[in-house]
Design a protein that fits this description.
Blueprint: H1 2-10, H2 18-50, H3 54-59, H4 72-79, H5 83-114, H6 118-132, H7 139-148, H8 156-164, H9 167-177, H10 182-190, H11 195-206, H12 208-224, H13 227-232, E1 249-250, E2 253-254, H14 256-286
Antiparallel strand pairs: 1-2
Helix pairs in contact: 2-14, 4-14, 5-8, 5-9, 5-12, 10-11, 12-14
Length: 292
């Protein structure tokens, strides 16, 4: 008993001093407050600047409250900035891109993960190599292909690019498929199901958490993407939310108060979607992270 007590005492951890625990708690909350300020301060500056006139914006400070609620900037951004058209174009691109990504991504992941052949290994390796290569190094070739296909200055250009280059989504679907038992496929095939029926009736419904995760990631990346829309759709009338306000930036000055008003308008749809679907978003982001 004495030997057991000595061993227990030897490996017993010392209690952290109270002063150290208080210091760590202060440090933890200080980091959290600093992170919140990094997010909130730019939003406050944009909100204040959106209600200022051009003269007031140039003469006042970034954190000075506007003297009056001026909604002219919002009207200018909405009408002259084609923010409404940008929201419509962005919505069209989002619907077709997300739908295409889900269909092509789940089908590709189903074939690559379920059929163990030399060809599927080659395809999987090709996806891995493509994910490692920097996308900017292939833009000249991609631009030439898009132009030769006649997709330049059309909404189809970003849709095709968003669907065809989404390798990360395929790997997400593959990881979720690893947790779905192959015995389900075998049982369905023994009952007379074909592989397309197995995909539509078994695999696709069970991939709903992965589909939700991919849709969240896809929505955020497309909504914030400026480069693709600016490069492949420079024509007037094809603006998206990220390029609609670019016309207010010029070499002789920028109308930042109008740009800030447009930013507020563009934030509202995403804020509504997030507040109404936050439980669904959070549950999908963590689904499949733990294998039971």
């Amino acid at each position: 008993m004495e030997e057991k007590a000595s061993v227990t005492k030897k490996y017993q951890f010392r209690e952290t001093p109270k002063a150290v625990r208080i210091l760590f708690a202060i440090l933890k909350y200080a980091v959290l407050i600093f992170a919140c300020l990094l997010v909130l301060i730019p939003l406050v500056v944009v909100l204040f600047g959106a209600f200022k006139s051009h003269k007031e914006f140039l003469t006042s400070g970034a954190f000075d409250l506007p003297t009056s609620l001026n909604f002219d900037n919002f009207a200018t951004a909405f009408i002259k900035g084609n923010v409404m058209q940008g929201l419509i174009n962005t919505g069209i691109i989002l619907v077709f891109s997300c739908l295409g990504t889900v269909i092509t991504g789940t089908m590709t992941a189903f074939v690559v993960q379920r059929f163990r052949m030399v060809l599927t290994r080659v395809v999987k390796t090709a996806f891995l190599v493509a994910a490692v290569l920097p996308s900017i190094s292939m833009q000249v070739t991609v631009f030439q292909i898009v132009h030769q296909l006649g997709l330049y200055n059309t909404l189809a250009a970003p849709i095709v690019l968003y669907i065809g280059t989404d390798i990360v989504s395929i790997y997400i679907f593959i990881q979720f498929l690893n947790n779905i038992s192959v015995s389900l496929d075998e049982s369905a095939i023994l009952d007379g199901c074909s592989y397309p029926r197995v995909y539509w009736s078994i695999i696709l419904p069970m991939l709903r958490p992965a589909i939700g995760t991919v849709l969240v990631i896809k929505f955020v990346s497309i909504y914030n993407d400026f480069y693709t829309a600016n490069l492949y759709m420079p024509k007037d009338g094809l603006e998206v939310v990220s390029t609609a306000l670019y016309k207010f930036i010029g070499p002789y000055g920028s109308k930042w108060e109008i740009i800030f008003a447009g930013v507020i308008i563009c934030i509202i749809p995403t804020l509504i979607i997030f507040l109404s679907m936050q439980k669904f978003i959070y549950s999908n982001l963590v689904s499949g992270s733990v294998k039971e």
